[in-house]
């Protein structure tokens, strides 16, 4: 299945459908070095040659993020569980901007350097082919979206009450270190802490939320592997609607009050749309569905994820 396409919004409204889309998983290439193998700084995409990386396959991302809507500062810890597809002396992650303070591989400190959008990691020991390893990256900063060749922005886009996060095709690297090509799909856990009164919406199922010391933490889990550009962590003041369809699909809709009237008739059709697509393509493969309808003048498009 081809990646979902952007659709221009008639109003200055950003719409993010939080239904994951399946994309074929392949492995990236590697580049040999004199003393071993270095993962390639790109997955060979003809349009975005530096998106994604070679030499490993990410199985799971565990993202713990804190966002201050006033200063727009993001503090993050990303834990990536991956399998080496070749013997690796070093490998790359995609990360644009942001300040990296520490990197470990299997709980052992690793050296790292920045090269444009590449975070180049050199573990203390060679990673043998077939080995599963865990990379932890601590980072912080003010995320900024990337501008695509068509002039649109994607990634972490600030709004007046939080942030709208839509990653297609290369926006994931604006807010977490990633193997940023749809060839490499993975499962996700999100722990998102935001000021009290804001809602943080990610992929999959909401496991729980709690408020303490003026901040609320939301925990989300997406167990089915998905392409990195589908990941979101949209933050704002939302009216939340939750229900379960007749087929047992959990629906979570988050709507900015300024867009509620226009969004209501569209969101009402979601169960019928899911039922129709299930008849056409087969049973819906995920546990959850839903949408985020945000007031985001700097976005101006809808993204189906």
Automatic annotation (TrEMBL):
It holds the Pfam family Peptidase_M1_N. Residues 60-230 form the Aminopeptidase N-like N-terminal domain. SUPFAM superfamilies: Leukotriene A4 hydrolase N-terminal domain. The keyword Chaperone does not apply. InterPro entries: Aminopeptidase_N-like_N, Aminopeptidase_N-like_N_sf, M1_LTA4H. Residues 1-24 form the signal peptide. It comes from the Bacteria. Keywords: Signal. This is Aminopeptidase N-like N-terminal domain-containing protein. The lineage of its organism: Bacteria, Bacillati, Actinomycetota, Actinomycetes, Kitasatosporales.
């Amino acid at each position: 299945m081809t990646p979902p396409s952007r659709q221009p919004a008639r109003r200055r409204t950003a719409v993010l459908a939080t239904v994951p889309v399946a994309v074929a998983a392949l492995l990236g290439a590697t580049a040999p070095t004199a003393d071993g193998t270095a993962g390639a700084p790109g997955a060979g995409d003809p349009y975005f040659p530096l998106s994604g990386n070679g030499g490993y396959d990410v199985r799971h991302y565990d993202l713990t993020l804190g966002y201050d809507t006033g200063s727009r500062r993001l503090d993050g810890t990303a834990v990536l569980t991956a399998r080496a597809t070749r013997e690796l002396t070093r490998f790359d992650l995609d990360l644009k901007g942001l300040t990296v303070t520490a990197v470990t591989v299997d709980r052992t400190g690793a050296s790292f350097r920045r090269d444009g959008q590449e975070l180049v990691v050199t573990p203390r020991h060679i990673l043998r082919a077939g080995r599963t390893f865990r990379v932890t990256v601590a980072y912080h900063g003010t995320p900024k979206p990337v501008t695509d060749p068509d002039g649109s922005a994607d990634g972490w886009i600030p709004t007046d009450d939080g942030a709208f996060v839509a990653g297609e095709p290369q926006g994931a690297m604006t807010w977490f270190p990633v193997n940023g090509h749809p060839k490499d799909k993975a499962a996700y856990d999100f722990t998102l802490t935001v000021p009290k009164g804001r809602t943080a919406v990610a992929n999959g199922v909401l496991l729980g939320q709690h408020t303490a010391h003026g901040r609320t933490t939301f925990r989300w889990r997406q167990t089915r592997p998905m392409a990195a550009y589908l990941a979101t962590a949209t933050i704002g003041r939302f009216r939340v609607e939750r229900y379960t369809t007749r087929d047992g699909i959990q629906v979570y809709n988050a709507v900015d009050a300024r867009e509620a009237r226009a969004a209501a008739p569209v969101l009402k059709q979601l169960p019928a749309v899911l039922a129709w697509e299930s008849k056409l393509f087969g049973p819906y493969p995920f546990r959850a569905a839903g949408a985020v309808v945000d007031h985001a003048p700097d976005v101006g498009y809808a993204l189906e994820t």
